[in-house]
Hints:
By secondary structure, the chain is α+β, with helices and mostly antiparallel strands. Helices cover 27% and strands 26% of the residues. The radius of gyration is 19 Å and the shape is elongated.
Amino acid sequence: MANAVVEEAKRRGLRHEEYHSKVEYLVAHGIASTVDEERVLIGSAHFVFEDEGCVIPEGEQERFDALPPEYSHLYLAVAGQLAAVICISDPLREEAKEVSTALRALGITSTVMLTGDSRRTAAAIAAQVGVDDVPRRGPAGGQGGRMWHGSAGRDIPS
């Protein structure tokens, strides 16, 4: 994802000057560094809000809640406060809806999408394709490495 952000910045002619100190790469979460003695984070909602305890600035909750669900979101926080959200499009493959339709024609009555995207983004994509369910990680936010099929209550091994 980081490469996509850097490439788009180059395409737009945006300059990137190095102001940060040593960078910490936190696999599957994001990046942490320090700029002007303030901790700067960029990464997933889980990393920025849950792990690091960052907050949405006062008066910005409505705008935050209105972020388009069909995009993946990359959150930038400075000194414990959300400073920006980068919306990243990961377009559907051209044949995705066609494959879903073909599966139904073969008698498949229930389809499930497994993804690393946020539940909100995954649900928006699933609706575009015609997927029936997007499992949530369970129990306790994925502890134990199992997925739960929401409506049927069946375990789906990960």
